[in-house]
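WARN no homologs supplied; continuing
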Amino acid sequence: MAVTGLTALLAAAVGLGSAAGAKAVAAVAAGQLSIGWCNDRLDLQRDRAAGRRDKPLAVRAVRPGTVGTAACVALLLCIPLSLACGVLAGSLHLGCVAAGWSYNVWLKRTVLSWLPYAVAFGLLPAFLTLTLPGRPWPPLWLIVAAALLGTSAHCANVLPDIEEDIAGGVLGLPHRAGRRGTVALAAILALASCVVLTLGLPGPATPLRVGLIGVTLALCLLAVAGAHAPVRGRLPFIAVLAMAGVDTALLVLAGNAHTPGQVWP
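OK structure emitted
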């Protein structure tokens, strides 16, 4: 829901019309559903062993075959929906979806667990701009900033269940870094994304941009300090999510800086 919502905001920001924007959002929604359902189906035994009450499969509220079929159907729907945005844009998005599936099947257990997030988030702005007339590419700084945000999101997403994942044999990059290291990594990456976005936006630095960097820096320090508190809590996780929210706002501002039909400076 978060990624699909971000796509809708960015589609409006870069100037996609209602019809083109709807196709792009539908393609992303189908891809996200396929990735999410695939992930839950593959993690079924580990989620049951961990006692995950928030997973319908783990509590036997839905059959594994149903979820597996739904994942495949969503993936099949994603193909024509993506290509309806143009061959180049659609192929790029299908590559992002393939990165998500590669995470589920293999990379989540390796030191390269961050790579699918970096690729998929980084190329999301390109998917949308390549849907525009003239097929313009976004600037490199926007791709880098989105990739940093995606990698930070990966670290933040791991935090609530990091101990259970490690016990279940999942050893991605955040798990190898540990809780404190993952909090620091997520916060620093989110801060770096904010800085790249602020410096990359055309025009002079406005008080709003400078203020957002200040807010992100304060949240970064809060997250890192909270990770070293003697009592485990959700403060670092909430601080990192707040940083991601600030970065998302900047990402939309970056999209608004684009003039439809022209290439970014």
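The two ends are 31 Å apart (CA to CA).
OK
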